[in-house]
Amino acid sequence: MQVSRRSLFNPRDWNSAPQQSAQVSPALHLLNRITWGPRPEEAERAEKIGLSAYLDEQLNPQSIDDSQLEAKLKALPLLQVKDRRALYALDDYEWRVYQTLARAMLRRAIHSKRQLQERMTEFWTDHFNISANDVDYAPDLLALHAFFRQNALGSFRDLLFASAKSPAMLVYLDNFVNVKGAPNENYARELMELHTLGVDGGYTERDIKEVARAFTGWTIHPKTPDGFYFDPEEHDAGVKKILGHTLPAGRGIEDGLHVLSIVANHPSTAQFVCRKLCVRFVSDDPPAALVARLAQTWRQSGGQLRPVLRQLFLSAEFQQSAGQKFRRPLDFLVGVLRASGAEIWQKWVLEEIVLQLGQLPYGWPTPDGYPDTAPAWMSTNGLLARWNTAMRLTHAAYSDPEEGGVTVDLYARIGQPKTVSELVDAVAR
């Protein structure tokens, strides 16, 4: 791909490079987007069974044997604790549980065979972002993350409802102190701006105030099994008018549930989330026609994600989008590890690299989640961190256990190239 000096430092120019300039096979292009980085054997399998069949496998993760990953996750015993109250009772539970969450996320990204499920879990983690910078709610963050994984390819409605009732979300966006007479609008605003309709989705400031009233009384309680508690004494039971719908007086928790149904089914939500999916998987400025078709499928299916994703990945626009996405830091790191077969034996080294690259799991401080476009990641410091990471993963000195125990056997992956040119081509693949 020919890239001018000007386009290297102007992501808009870089992103609008001719689509045909990137010479990537259809199978490799698909795997570059739906996995954290293709392993050679996965590319061979996709070529063998066909892209449609391979995609269908990934869209149905329960059909894929992931027992090798499960064996690796046994080293994280807190994942097996199902009672959130038991986690909160641990000494130093905040960092112990967050560390488990982050390590499990990285291990799944690197080792899982259910790659699209893991990619979509990360997507929903960003979409419903909750910062772990304040980790007082880490056990509830762990539970919500598990729900996102289980339902990553299912119903948007289920994801939305689960996020709204999560104690982690209730605390992060202040709804746990949202009471009648003094409503807190933080969750109401982010619900419509970031989780559903989008900033141009057709709602008003009046809608935000009414939604905040609908969620009064949604709070937390340490003795309930899931931590959620509806307090009828703190709920505003008056009439509410939201996005053309009237919520009658005298109701309780039904007000909030009704609001979630309204925004989940709103056409602006279909448009907004489908565009975000295209930005994640196609390009920073995706074709409007593709977004419109996906939004139509979304509405017809009631927000079911599998048909939307299948249509996206088999679309002509997706197939022509090779080279139009700049990898985020975790994509870069995990992609290198998966492609090269490198192993990092010291957990602290992997975590140190992730920190230096600037994309710690749940590390983004604001509710909008980690950025998904090139300008956010193409800084001088960001690129330097990637170069240093590449050196660290390939330099022989780092194979010393005291330096992190990084091992990589490229020749096991690429065979025995006879010339430098063949070597470069093999590594680039």
Can you walk me through this structure?
The protein is mainly α. Among the domains are: 65-154, no CATH class; 167-264, no CATH class; 326-429, no CATH class. Helix content is 55%, strand content 4%. It has 24 helices and six strands. The chain has a two-stranded antiparallel sheet. A two-stranded antiparallel sheet has the order 3-4. α6 packs antiparallel against α8, α8 runs parallel beside α10 (138-150) and α20 (329-340) packs parallel to α22 (380-394). 39% of the residues are buried. Residues 1-22 have low confidence and may be disordered.
Following the backbone from N to C, one meets helices and strands in this order, namely HHHHHHHHHHHHHHEEEEHHHHHHEHHEHH
What is the helix content? 40-55%
The 3D shape can be described as: globular
Strand order of the largest sheet: 1-2
Tell me the strand percentage band. Answer: under 5%
Given as residue ranges, the uncertain stretches (5+ residues, pLDDT < 50) are 1-22
The assigned structural class equals mainly alpha
Largest β-sheet summary: 2 strands, antiparallel
Question: Rg, please?
Answer: 23 Å
State mean pLDDT (0 to 100 scale): 90
Oligomeric form of this entry?
A: single chain
Extended strand count? 6
Number of helices: 24
Cα distance, first to last residue? 14 Å
